[in-house]
Design a protein that fits this description.
By secondary structure, the chain is of the alpha+beta class. The chain is 30% helix and 19% strand.
Length: 178
């Protein structure tokens, strides 16, 4: 149940808040009562409670959402037209990015760009990067991003959660293959 609920809420908060009639602020926050009202209009979620949503967050190993007081938001992965505002943070020394082999030449020539998302997604650990890369290639390439050097050179980074970091772009001069 929690996996399905997480996917539903992720879709609502990251990709189609208008389909759920959600009023999102510039940081991606939505009143939780508004989300619950929208979910209750769907047969599968008529009885879902704030406690269920909190439990969904607690048991998830991916930490995609957070609740503070009476509001909820997705940490990352937004594809909506409105840019979700993030606060710059000093990244760890090294971050990783998993990608399909077919994208390597373009990345090494042009760097990492967000494509259809708002930010480039980077991982704190190789395992997460491999998991992400395997969505697009059964033998993904793992890139090492010299994130602290990039940060010191003026590249903006944002903390998504304890495993995911975000960047607007990462020039190829900060990237090497593992």
């Amino acid at each position: 149940m929690y996996t399905r609920l997480s996917k539903e809420i992720s879709y609502a908060l990251r990709h189609a808040p208008w389909e759920y009639e959600l009023e999102m602020d510039e940081e991606g926050w939505v009143p939780i009562e508004q989300l619950l009202d929208a979910l209750h209009r769907k047969n599968d979620w008529k009885n879902v409670t704030q406690g269920d949503i909190q439990q969904m967050i607690n048991v998830s190993d991916k930490k995609r959402h957070e609740i503070i007081e009476s509001r909820i938001r997705a940490f990352y992965g937004h594809s909506i037209p409105m840019k979700i505002s993030k606060t710059q943070s000093r990244p760890p020394e090294i971050l990783y990015h998993g990608t399909a082999r077919r994208f390597m030449k373009s990345i090494m020539d042009n760097g990492l760009s967000p494509q259809s998302r708002q930010y480039v997604h980077l991982s704190r650990d190789i395992e997460t990067a491999q998991s992400v890369g395997k969505r697009h290639d059964d033998k993904p390439c793992i890139l090492i991003v010299d994130s602290l050097r990039a940060w010191n050179d003026g590249i903006a980074f944002y903390c998504g959660n304890e495993k995911v970091w975000l960047a607007d772009t990462v020039p190829s001069s900060y990237i090497k293959e593992l």
